[in-house]
Amino acid sequence: MAFWQAFHLPRYLPIYVRLWLAVVLAVGALTLIFGWLWQANAEQTPPREVVIRDEAGQVVGQALARPVRVPGQGIEFQVAMTDGSSLFVQIPPRPRRAGEPPPPRPWARGSTGLLWMLGIVALAVAIGTYPIIRRLTQRLENLRRGVERWGEGELSTRVPVSGTDEVAFLAQRFNKAAERIETLVKSHKSLLANASHELRSPLTRIRMGLELMGAQTLPTFKNEISRNIAELDQLIDEILLASRLDAREADVGTIETVDLTGLAAEECARLDAELQVADSSQAVMVQGVAKLLRRVIRNLLENARRYSTGPITVQVRREGRRAIISVGDRGPGVPPDQRERIFEPFYRLPGASEQEGGVGLGLALVRSIVQRHSGAVHCDDREGGGACFVVELPLRDM
Fold this sequence. Notes:
The protein folds into three domains: 3-92 and 104-146, no CATH class; 167-246, Helix Hairpins (Orthogonal Bundle), CATH 1.10.287.130; 256-394, Heat Shock Protein 90 (2-Layer Sandwich).
């Protein structure tokens, strides 16, 4: 059985607790070993020969016995008499003289006294080593918390550097690495945003050239160019939005109270989808950016329309302190092993064709927007066939 199971300790213990327990257990083991050695040494006290004579000088009792210390009464010997009986000979403690300090207390003498002394030493070591070990490992905890925050996306996180040992060196190296990665990510986002902006100018010129084409140009050719321009324009727009959402400090809009039922009704009317609202006198209101939440519903509806062969339904309801938006379709559905990957940028399901439309950023934007609003989104099977995308958002505090 493991140590933490035997003593009902949690499987994870901070490093300072482990070091402190190691010191305490080591001192405890040392105390037991010394106590055992002292006891064994006391038991090996050589026996003394005790002889008892009568008035005539005849030996009436004789024995080879070890002295036995009786607390408060001195030492005594057990002597076998010639008549078969036993006699106890006791030597009382020496009386104190005037001004002489009192003798040691019974618990402080012999092996018991050593155990008490070692116990006090062990307690002093346990109390004295705790602040030292805690101070040593506090910096490790600060480094661990900094790495966790940095791993969660707070790239500006830095850990305090103190001391000149290996922990301080590790903290310095982490800060330098975090600074370099933050600079690279910011440069990448800036390059992406600038490139997206620059692409709009040639797109505008291509669109103007398309409008100035003569009548001899085939309509199918013009329609194909228009479709490609629309897809490229949509890609640029979604890349810009994704870049702003990734930057936590970027302004993505004004936070206000949003009626999800109203947004869903407008988008359903635009794409001819069926809206199902739960019978409730309470409106489904959330705090968020209206244009972003509208984008969530629109992207889910367009994704459903792209793959669905039947009616598309949208449900808006309340569940406890959460607002639920469900978008269901009658398409081929999503395999269970692909239900997380479809939210990755530019990922398409195996077998999906580019002719079906979309650039692979729609669902990734949905997840980014929902997470920005402290919510979650996932994909389930729809009863009767198809897929159902479920968005959960916190309700507005009334």
